[in-house]
Amino acid sequence: MYAQPGFFSVLVKDPSMNSPSKKGKFSPSGDQRFKEIVHDRDILASIIKGVIPEFENLSREEIYGYLDIKDDGHTVRGRDIELVSSVNGPIYMDSVFDVRSPNEGEMSIIVAIEGQGSQMSSNDLSNRQIYYSSRLISDQGQDFPTKDSLYRNLRKTTVVWVKISPVRAERNTIIRDNRYRYSVAEPDRIYHSPLDKTEIIEVNVGPYDEGEKIELLGILGILFSREMDERAKNHNLKEKYHISLRSSIIKEAGHMGALAEEYELYGNERERIGLEKGREEGLVKGREEESKDNIDYYTALVLKRCAESGEPLEQVVDSMTMPPKYRESVFERARKELSEGDS
Fold first, then answer.
1. What does the pLDDT average to over 137-156?
2. Are 109 and 155 in contact (CB under 8 A)?
3. What is each CA distance from 62 to 6, 87, 240, 303, in whole angstroms?
4. N or C: which end of the chain has fewer CB within 10 A?
5. Given pLDDT bands bounded at 50, 70 and 90, which one contains residue 325?
6. For strand 109-116 and strand 156-163, is the pairing parallel, antiparallel, or unpaired?
7. For residue 202, what are the β-bridge partners?
8. CB-count burial class (<10 Å; 0-12, 13-18, 19+) for 173
9. How far does the chain reach from its first CA to its final CA, in angstroms?
10. pTM of the model
11. In this predicted model, what pLDDT tens digit does every residue of 249-295 receive, in sequence order?
């Protein structure tokens, strides 16, 4: 249920990462990479501290106490990743977290973190941002038996867009959009609006700057740096921010930082050449390649889970979250590989 007084629900929408996309999305392997990164307690706590005012005066160690951390001591437990609407269809979120509110008696908040790869047009991105934000508001109606109970418990939403390849002018910035109230007779007097149930935040990652005053930008700048190797990243995170990350998190972030550079080169080349014909031809080829990559990725996950759990293939495929259009192909592909392995 969304309505749990005293809890923050943090929904993290992850980017995918294999090849540049004209829609600003990545492939599923990148989804998994970003998912592993934001499920890390230090990274998630840093994001929460950096963008949610209720947590800004708490240390990361204090924020751990409001997270549901697994027995390994590092990974934050998530929940269902799909927001379903009979009218609008599903939205797939890679990670959903419940985070307790540090303020006693305060209504909980829903926070979505959306990873953004390539540079979408400002209009497309703005429309996408408001759509996701609106869905997080409207979909809360499914959790209450009556409209009255919904209206009494409607929770604020914050959508955080982590942009790993923003335009040059926006790098190393955090931009907030929210709602205020003013009187037409006194337009210069601005009040906090009681309708401010949606806040959209862009975290624009840029090159690491030793003089960076905003902690979250410094942490992400090191994490996704293209100039530092893994040892330098570990050293700087420990020395400057007292963060010790697992090597797997550093490695996955390195892959994403490298891909951000590819996005920039891709975008610059596209602007320079202006190949409209190539763009149209590439759409078909790109869809085919994306489908193949997705099927490969989900098949590998299914086979791994079968090996680890010993559960039947049908049960594993049915329980795994993936776009429905890939499910049959993944099942047939995994069944074939399992049968070949047994022969």
1. 88
2. yes
3. 16, 40, 19, 38
4. C
5. confident
6. parallel
7. 161, 175
8. middle
9. 46
10. 0.69
11. 998 888 877 666 555 544 444 444 444 455 555 555 555 666 777 78
Structural domain boundaries in the chain: 7-274, 277-343
Residue 170, Cβ density class (10 Å: 0-12 exposed, 13-18 middle, ≥19 buried): middle
Give the residues across from 7 on adjacent strands: 100
Lookup: tokens for 153: 């418990």
pLDDT at 82: 64
Pick from 258, 223, 2: nearest CA to 112: 2
Interval 180-209: pLDDT, tens: 898 999 988 888 888 888 888 999 999 998
* Residue partners of 203: CB distance under 8 A and separation at least 6: 47, 50, 51, 160, 161, 162, 163, 174, 216, 217, 220
Going by C-alpha positions, the residue among 296, 324, 290, 280 that lies closest to residue 21 is: 290
Dist CA 99 CA 111 (whole Å): 10
Site of tokens 């014909």: 277
